[in-house]
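Lab notebook, bench 4. The sequencing result for the construct came back, and we need a structural model before the next group meeting so we can plan mutations. Quick request posted to the team channel:

Model the 3D structure of this chain.
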Amino acid sequence: MARVALAPFMAGAFLLLLTTGLGAGQWPQFRGPGGQGVSDSAHAPVEWSETSNVAWKVPVPGLGWSSPVVADGRVWLTTATEDDPRKDDAVSLRLLGYDESSGRELVNVVVFAVRTSAEINPKNSWASPTPIVDGGRVFVHFGAEGTAAITTSGEVVWRARFPYQSQHGGGGSPVLHDGLLVFNADGSDSAAVIALDAGTGKVKWRRDRRVPYDQAYSTPLVIRVKDRDQIVSAGAFRATAYEPGTGREIWRVTYGDGFSNVPRPVFSNGLVLIATGFQQPSLLAVRPDGSGDVTKTHVAWRLARGVPLTPSPIAVGGEAYLVSDGGIASCVEIATGATLWQQRLGGTYSASPVLAGGHLYFSSEQGVTTVVQPGREFRRVARNTLDGSLLASMAVSGEAIIMRSDSSLYRLRQSRNDPWRDQP
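Done. Here's the predicted structure in token form:
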């Protein structure tokens, strides 16, 4: 039954990967090839611990909550290290690259050296936005502290900086589209969506958000609606779809006092799912074929229960799956917004869920990953624990999962004789 329900969705995901030139061994951006947490991997590990199904585990210097990305046999992430013990506010913002097969560190380059005078949320870090890889370049983003392009051998190609006041530090990751590197720069003093020439770092367009300003930490998502692309960006009080080449607004939806948005939007079954952020989070399902303010005309449904402040939703077939920061998992019918089931997983959550090998993975801050079978009834498959905290989202590469804790990087791979390898 699960195999039948997943088939159309997985076929669509596979076609998307083919059109982007990416395969199962590539996870080049936050939430994977399509930016929505979906892998086309047929087999992924279902059970693991510190002593089983760990291909390798290596220490990661400093602290960062950027999610690992994988491309061409290398794993990339960012981190922040305090290199001078005499100066509490001196931080080096680094790009790290590891050999995927062995875990050996290949690149460790300081991209920015900064003095961190601002406060930061205890759950955040100075290196939380996830890198993105394209060809021979790795693009890194550290929020208001700077953005850069680096070769895969560790040479900095360009640097750019767009300061703004952020109460809790950086969070949103960049997205690449048609030669542009696009990211949100949402602070309490100014808020904007910025598109840079990926080759030079020069500004191609900037669209300031209307007042009032307030911080947000979401990542844009590129979607295709009929015959044109849109860049959907969730910010404080409103989400907007932009024309990629010019930054011209296509449509927008408002949501009252929602701010500090973190989840990345999801596009499935003709609807964009947008989490509205603090104070009381809601999930809006928006039809993206309108123009101007579509709040009263194109919102298909709203969900108020079990909506996350931090983890992004994930869509599988006709259902969307959510996990709240407090550990309540939900399955929602995308067409109607009806809640099909809710289940307490335990723990607290920041990482976004991932689909791989026909299973959903929910990782808690306490190091526990709950594996769930997608479907209209809740079915837990496994529960796995690693040492340390898990706030970064996992990456999937072929038959392996890459996970980052507060101190280590793991490559998890099911043993050849494990019976789960034969499961659909």
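The longest strand covers residues 105-115.
Will bring this to the meeting.
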